[in-house]
Amino acid sequence: MPGNKEPFLASTQEDKAQAAIKIKELRERLERWARLYYVHDAPEVPDAEYDRAFQQLQALEAAFPELVTPDSPTQRVLGEVKQGLEPVRHSVPMLSIRTETDTGPGAALAFDARVRRELGLGEADPPVEYVAEPKFDGLAMNLRYEHGRLVLAATRGDGEVGENVTHTVRTIRQIPLLLPAGVPPLLEVRGEVFMARSDFDALNERQRALGGKTFMNPRNAAAGAVRQLDARITAQRPLRFFAYGTGALTPPEDGGPDFSTHYALLQTLKKWGFPVSEHVKTAQGASELVAYHAAMGALRAQLPYDIDGVVYKVNRLDWQRRLGFVTREPRWAVAHKYPPQEVVTRVEGIDVQVGRTGRLTPVARLAPVLVGGVMVTNATLHNLFELRRKKVRVGDPVIVRRAGDVIPEVVGVVAQPSSAAPARPRYVPNFRMPRQCPVCGSAVVREKGETDHRCTGGLFCPAQRKQALLHFAQRRAMDIEGLGEKLVDQLVEGGSVQTVADLYRLDLPTLANLDRMGEKSARNLLEALEKSKQSSLPRFVFALGIRHVGEATAKDLARHFGSLDAIMDASVEQLRTVPDVGPVVAHSIHMFFAQPHNREVIAQLRACGIRWPEGPPASAHTAAVPPLAGKTVVLTGTLPTLSREAAKELLEAAGAKVSGSVSKKTDYVIAGADPGSKLSKAQELGVPVLDEAGLRALLAARAE
Ligand SMILES: NC(=O)c1ccc[n+]([C@@H]2O[C@H](COP(=O)([O-])OP(=O)(O)OC[C@H]3O[C@@H](n4cnc5c(N)ncnc54)[C@H](O)[C@@H]3O)[C@@H](O)[C@H]2O)c1
Ligand SMILES: [Zn+2]
Asked: Quick check: CB of 241 below 6 Å from ligand 1?
């Protein structure tokens, strides 16, 4: 959690002994985190936590230089070769970039000052020219081309030895496999492979739907996709690429290109077919770097991909060579970061929000924390199943991510709590979804096979008001001309309309008083409302906004039952006799009309004068001759969805006589699982045998 800086003073032997202990502990922690991050693509902590520990270690080693060892994480590039991938030695090492800890303008000033000093420039010398680039948050890639043909793609690994991922990289469309004529015989292009945020969201959405594991961020998703043994998996996860430099290159004396600046090099790469970001810019001196940092920072949320900072590079390549390298990083470049998009905080509660379509979402109430520079107090947990999979409970330290303009989300619980992010202090019961909508008290249901819970009080629920009104008013429903989104917003927010029935209680003064509503439009709306009162049963049923009841189903229901009361009072079984109404739809209709609040609103609508012609139910058209009149039917075995009783009821309602034994007089035998001797008897006598689907078809056909 924020702000656990520990001051270290280099003085006594005792301090040194303590520092040695702390250094050991930090190195172990960093190595563990790095292994999870680089090898397994499954970080345990956000980058900000890693960076904080890294900086602590740097500070300690600076205070006690004698404790620095060559294997310290500060002295080498961390990373390993994944099992199953072939190790490859880089002909030019792939290094890290020094990160300026100061996230303010100080970072650019300090870098510029250092560069000028090391180049021996004085006050009178002009500003140094830099190239400023976004720092893409993906993974570094070295693409080796020989005679214009891609021969090897390798990850960074430990900087010296990376992984051969040519097979997966070939699936990335933005990476050319063949280059135009005229490129140097040896060309290594370096850049970042990454995943766009929308592709990442879609991937996680897909994983959620399958109940699979989700990724913390696009970087890990991209790294995981590239480091696959099976390229078919990579091909299903859209990746992109930006080039930002070169590795080995045919030297000028052997006919290779002689670039004088980094910028010119990038422009040439672009010409050869590599994507180069349009946000790569040259900058004169520190002040333009500061301006670039601010401008990219403002743009960050709108970019379609994650960046975790910007990179400044000295533009002149002869100067880059003069500046050279320290152990793990070049002296001519620096990374200047932005506030982290993933941070650790604590869950203080779990609330349930009801969306405008009635979907219930568990939302974590958080100890307020800055994420990507924005104060965040709530983060979505998506649904009950995701929450359970992530094992989130009140009191847990969690990782929260907020990127772009999307809603912040809880990525997961901190796996190894520490003093900065201690574990939940005591047992906390598992979260449960409420059985009643927290907004309106209607029943909450979850459909078979679905992950979402929903409120069934569509007509009444305040959370669903606007949606219900818009649906009700649309042309194919009640056709209330002039009742659009803006007006609905005003009516609901001003409190003059709560349910659809309130529409018919609006009067001229109330309407004429609304923003941008003259008397003429107010009159028109009242007229449209009046006109809409003369409706039809299918339109009205559709207008109620029952989940899964579209226009076609509304028509079927109206035809089948004839009256609204009959639909409202129908049992699930009766609803299921309507053609094309399956169990999920029947349930949804039944639950909707079982909510007293919904019924109340319907009663109010009728009292307001909404009317439609009603007719006899479809089965009654032939009432004199019920569809199965005079037929004798025998049931045997267990039907997949209908109980024996329900099947009997349906048959009798259709006029059939249900008998207990099969004879020559039997017209049909309906057989389910484990049928008894009745089935063999029927087969013996040549009586037609039907299953449940056959029975339904029979009833439906006869009912037409
Ligand atoms: N969360 C964890 O557990 C964990 C563990 C280890 C490392 N990390 C993170 O990894 C990073 C440290 O690793 P690092 O040493 O690889 O440094 P780095 O990733 O911060 O910087 C070097 C990398 O920047 C990338 N880059 C993006 N845009 C670039 C551009 N325009 N020009 C040049 N390079 C560009 C390259 O891939 C290059 O390898 C930190 O951000 C750290 O937080 C996190
Ligand atoms: Zn509700």
From this structure: no
Stretch(es) of the chain classified as CATH 3.40.50.10190: 624-703
Residue nearest to atom 10 of ligand 1 (CA): 47
5 belongs to the catalytic site: no
The CATH H-level (homologous superfamily) assignment of domain 342-413 is Nucleic acid-binding proteins (2.40.50.140)
List, for residues 305-362, the tens digit of each pLDDT value: 999 999 999 999 999 999 999 988 999 999 999 999 999 999 999 999 999 999 999 9
Q: What is the average per-residue pLDDT within 570-578? A: 95
Selected from 1.10.150.20, 2.160.20.10, 3.40.50.2300, 3.40.50.150, the CATH number assigned to the domain covering 458-607 reads 1.10.150.20
The answer for 121, left when phi > 0, alpha when psi is -120 to 50, beta otherwise, is beta
Tell me which H or E stretch contains 412. strand 409-413
Residue of 135, 163, 266, 282 with the most ligand 1 atoms within 8 Å of its CB, for mutation: 135
CB 99, CB 334: distance < 8 Å: yes
Is the CB of residue 33 below 6 angstroms from any atom belonging to ligand 1? yes
Which burial class, exposed, middle or buried, applies to 677 when counting CB atoms under 10 A from its CB (0-12, 13-18, 19+)? exposed
Token pair for residue 272? Answer: 């050869």
Indicate the fold that domain 624-703 takes in CATH. Answer: Rossmann fold (3.40.50)
Q: Is 133 in the pocket of ligand 1 (CB under 6 A)?
A: yes
Q: Tell how far the Cα of 396 is from the centroid of ligand 2, in angstroms.
A: 29
**pLDDT tens digit string along 435-487?**
999 999 999 999 988 889 999 999 999 999 999 999 999 999 999 999 999 99
Could you tell me if the CB of 27 is within 6 A of ligand 1?
no
What mean pLDDT do residues 269-298 have? 97
Instruction: For residue 414, give Cα distances in angstroms to 49, 50, 216, 428.
Output: 11, 13, 12, 16
Q: Are 212 and 237 in contact (CB under 8 A)?
A: no
Look at the block and give the residue holding tokens 């339904």.
696
- Residue 296 has phi, psi (to 5 degrees) of -65, -35
Ligand nearest to the CA of 99: 1
In this structure, how many other beta carbons lie within 10 angstroms of the beta carbon of residue 353?
14
CA nearest ligand 1 atom 9, residue = 47
**The architecture CATH gives domain 99-337:** 2-Layer Sandwich (3.30)
- Condensed to tens digits (0 to 9), the pLDDT of residues 84-133 reads 999 999 999 999 999 887 778 899 999 999 999 999 999 999 999 999 99
Annotated catalytic residue: which of 135, 313, 337, 390? 135
* pLDDT tens track for 664-682: 889 999 999 888 889 989 9
Looking at all shown ligands, the one closest to residue 457's CA atom is: 2
Which of 122-131, 272-281, 403-412 comes out lowest in average pLDDT?
A: 403-412
**Nearest ligand, measured from the Cα of 76:** 1
Write out the residue limits of the CATH 2.40.50.140 domain(s) in the chain.
342-413
**Separation of 230 CA from ligand 1 center, angstroms?**
25
pLDDT digits (tens, 9 = 90+) for 614-638: 888 876 554 445 678 778 999 999 9
Collect all residues with Cβ–Cβ distance below 8 Å to 545 and sequence separation of at least 6. Answer: 458, 459, 467, 468, 471, 472
Is the CB–ligand 1 distance for residue 335 below 6 Å? Answer: yes
> Which class would CATH give 13-75?
mainly alpha
How many CB atoms sit inside 10 A of residue 566's CB? 17
CA of 96 to the centre of ligand 1 (A): 7
Give 6-26 pLDDT, tens digit per residue: 455 545 788 899 999 999 999
Say if ligand 1 is within 6 A of residue 45 CB. yes
Q: Where in the chain is the domain with CATH 1.10.150.20?
A: 458-607
